[in-house]
# Entry
Amino acid sequence: MSSLLRLSVLAAVAPIGIEALFLGGGLTILSRNKLDATGAQNDGTAAILVSQPSPFSAAKTACALLGEVPWNPDTAKFTAALNASLAYQVYQGIASADQLYWVAKADDEGDSCRGIDATGAEYDVDCLTENPALCTQSAPVSTSSFANNSLSWQVSHFVGNKQLAGYRDYHTWKFRGLAYAEPPERFGYSKVASFDDAGEVDATNAGPDCTQPVGEVKNTSLMSENCLFINVWTPYLPRTGGDKAKAHLKPVMLYLYGGGLTSGSGRNPNTDGTNLASRGDVVVVSANYRVGSLGFLNLNDGVHRGNYAVSDMVAALEWVHKYIADLGGDPSRVTLFGESAGAQSTHVLLGVPKAKGLFHRAIMQSSPDGYPSGGKVLQYGYYDSLEHNFATTTRRVLRDAGCANATDAVACLGRLSGYDLVNLTTNANGIVADGTYLLNHELVVNDTSASVATGVAMMVGFNRDETGVLIDNYPSNGTSLAAYFDAEVARHFSMPANAAAILGLPGSNSSNASAASFLGASAPATPAAVFDAAMRIATAAVFNCYGLAVAWSGAKHGAFASSYVYQFNRTYQTTGYTRPWCVPPANGAGPEQDEYKKCHAGEQMVVFGTVARAGHPDRDGRDFPFMGLVVDHWAAFARAADPNPDPRALAVRGHWDSLARLAAPGFGRWDPVDPAAPTLRLLQWESRQIPFVDQDVCKALGAAMDVFG
# Structure
């Protein structure tokens, strides 16, 4: 079959109901993504690479089927972006240096055809020669508030035997609302969905969010108990049924959202995967999982044992392992990552035997590993027993639901809608050692033989002042540290009411002198000093100490393939989740010159490269290039289990700002944790390695880095 006939047949096979174009794949979006405001409009410099070699007439037809025309070097500037994109194809080994690509004829009425190579050199080429093609890319740039998924930009693509209708914007192909699991039974483990049977899937819109109290998701019509959907952003669609050579496939980054395990959304615009996929050259996946009592209520009846959300996460990993190659992802390079409760979930999955081998790197951003429980000021992530969890949490849910004396708790709870269930006074969110997904009561990091994550490269980190955004009120004049800590910090985190006395904080009239080692001889006297001390203690207790201990012990005992640690000292707080002290002064010198608190969630938009996408400005001329550097770090870790980007790749792709930072004096390399002299990466404009932070605080709290041995 000729290439022209093949393309025509492929374009015609779409059954009724799927109107989107089907070209058989082999499509790569070539765009330069600087993550800044200059990319807010399509500037005509991008292209779509159709990798199937064909004569020029078929190439022109392929472009037309995309609603495009052959890319024209006479009207678009090759060196604006395409030079870097084609050089990167050569760098990856996907194309040879002398590969020619069809572009528009120099004379549309003439008999001669034109090709260009990766340097932009033009050649007269026999029109019957078979070459890949470069088509224009006229899809609009999407933003946090705008996306165009109309038929003009839709594309049909096969995953398994399902024909999906997705769409493209300027930077990526998007497939949203893919059911990775069968519709879940309430209080049942999820089962991975099969895409092996023929069928059609509209993947142009995200699926409903999991049922939760109104908060991050404000519209109840967007919620459902049938919510196990993923969204995929990819720069590359492989040929259907064709070559899926490893060199062509991209690293995969599967994101789990935060929200305290009681809320969250895979469609949060702050964590949209467009820019991370495009700039990072990775396939980004976000997965919904059940939250609150619908995700965690343990009935301790031998069948309904909680951890339903954990089963969702494992099912998402199983789906990715089986099908992500069809969307351009490499199933042997899957990074599981999340923020806050998503990081906590990643921590959990590092100890789940059913997840072993389904992911190969893990990034835990701001995991609350020391969140207080059991009457303690801090408590390492402990997976409760079924019996204790039932007695302390489930009984309260049953009481609130009017089911305390029901002989069939499932049937009784079934009278409540999912929304009513998660809005009871008690909303379960505790992870348990259920004997199916979790066999231990905590993640084992000091015994290689007991670890199920020895093949996983691990990164853990936090923002300098995590708890700043979680505290409502600033201290007033004359307030002691003890009084402020008990009234604001202990209350918010459900610490014991006398937490300040337990810690021996100044003003608590306690004989415990543990605080002296990190507060100095004199008590904080000003509101600013009281606030700083309280935030430092709380951030160390809830977020830092146990994360550092996991990294240190894991490195010492080989529980992970490698361990990397970071601390953000430059953040960009998300709108609607902030405090006045979490942002730099409005008329100040800038985020590195003026002191402000680097609060929880302040790294979200930085990691996903969505600051400009959300319409926010660059505060000092460094926000956007710093964001690019962080994306390059995260993508490098996903690519090779090492957060240090390859300088050659940065140069080839034209990421000059990141390349300049890597070469800056004192910048150095991001080193893995060395148990003999552990360091972390301080992420700021002048990034550098520094010793583990807050060890004086952590030691006083009984959670120094060697707490696990």
Q: What stands out?
A: The domain at 173-204+223-235+249-381+393-438 is CATH 3.40.50.1820 (Rossmann fold).
